[in-house]
Amino acid sequence: MHHATINVESEIGQGTTFIIKFLLGTRHYNDNKDIDYLIKDSENPEFIKSEENPDKYITEDSSIEGEGKIEKEEEEVVSSLPTLLIIEDNEEVRAFLRMILSEKYKILEADNGKTGLELALKEIPDFIISDIMMPEMNGIEVTEQLKGNITTSHIPIILLTAKSDNDSQLEGLKYGADDYITKPFSAKHLEIRIENILQQRLNWQKAFMEYSGNKGNSPEYIEVTPEAPQINPYDQEFMKNIMNIMEKNIDNMDFKVDDLVAGMFMGRTVFFKKLKSITGLAPIEFIREIRIKRASQLIESGQYTISQITYMVGMNDPRYLSRCFKQKFGVTPSEYREKYIKKSIR
User: Fold this and answer.
1) Taking Cα atoms as reference points, which of 158, 149, 199 lies closest to residue 177?
2) Cα separation of 96 and 111, whole Å?
3) Three-state DSSP class for 5?
4) Are 309 and 298 in contact (CB under 8 A)?
5) Nearest to 73 by CA among 258, 201, 255, 253
6) What is each CA distance from 57 to 19, 25, 62, 66, 68, in whole angstroms?
7) In this structure, what are the phi and psi dihedrals at residue 104, rounded to the nearest 5 degrees?
8) Would you write out the chain's pLDDT as a tens digit for each of its 346 residues?
């Protein structure tokens, strides 16, 4: 019906690429009957006429430049297994950790603290398990360095040690370690501790996203509970700066991921990984989330029309706003407004 083509390029051991090409314009349709059929046959029409050129048909997703593209670095962050760095000078312990964790993580290894620190700064892993007693640099020093660096401060760290006294545990936790496990330990015990830390991270992400986009709120005002642990000061500053940038550009339709990255003065890959770890969202998703949250607040104010709100939150098509809004809240902006008005009257 579209008269499109699909080609495939594949190389064993390298990967496969499918290339789909669509024709521009509408001349290839049979007197536009194909378009009429598609629109009649669908509850949510895929085709929308462009206001600038009535003869050109576009998809809703293309109404915002770049929204349909995921940059290579971001794609790598969201699609691959989480990366786990093991810093341990005992080869047998490293082999044991690799064996029990390799199914769920991409494993990186270092046999001393100095090498581990360098590898962490280079690769920005999603999780780190480190011994304490090691040559070159011990685990506590590694933890202090990583938690004191805005590039790596978000990475959860579990310290392993043969010491069981409270002073050693307190020292590790003092410098930001997320957990402390005494050797010897069972595989199940370690897996549960990792799952607990990841669940805490999910709780933080949920807590943050409930507050994000609310004008006047910033990460440091989020109530801290055992289920939503307090964020590292460097991560707190990171999110505060992001929210400030978003606040200044909330109505800027030309504001893109590249602009957000540039405003944070960080490398793309580091930025993507850090934002994903803290919020659970890729940059494109995060920007959209903030815009939709602000739209809900403006709707609740009752001062603006849906069209006005669309442009106030940096979107250029009310239909695109409506679709994103419904994905987030389960109702259209108009339905949300009616629901909010009824709630206020009660």
Assistant:
1) 158
2) 14
3) strand
4) yes
5) 258
6) 21, 7, 10, 18, 16
7) -105, -15
8) 778 899 999 999 889 999 999 888 777 766 555 455 444 443 433 343 444 444 444 444 443 444 444 445 454 444 468 899 999 999 999 999 999 999 889 999 999 999 999 999 999 998 999 999 898 899 999 999 999 998 899 999 999 887 665 665 666 667 778 888 888 888 888 889 888 888 887 887 777 766 654 554 444 433 434 344 456 788 888 888 999 999 999 999 999 999 999 999 888 888 998 898 888 889 999 999 999 999 999 998 889 999 999 999 999 899 999 999 999 999 999 999 888 776 666 5
Q: How many CB atoms sit inside 10 A of residue 11's CB?
A: 8
Residues 194 and 158 sit within 8 Å (Cβ to Cβ): yes
Residues in the chain: 346
- Token pair in block for residue 264: 């944070």
Residue with tokens 């290839």: 28
- At 285, list the tokens: 């998703």
d(CA 319, CA 49): 12
